[in-house]
Amino acid sequence: MMRTIKNGFKIIGYTDEFMGKIKVYNDKRKQVGEISKLGTKYSAKDTHFRLIAEYDERTNETKDAHFRRIGKGNILVEMLLKNG
Q: What pTM, to 2 d.p., does this model score?
């Protein structure tokens, strides 16, 4: 099931969870990546399965692929859209 959500400048789409993964699409309906959950951590990977960012629920922080803190809260969708 495709839903659209307004995210800043763009309208993006995502599918509901399927086997613990959420697929993220840009405004042109091209898949830009997916978000998966393992324990208390969510990881965002691009379409080539490279790690883009990681969000930890316990610390409420998002870190980039080099594990540098890039923001508070879950900003994985924004990172995937910026990357894709």
A: 0.77
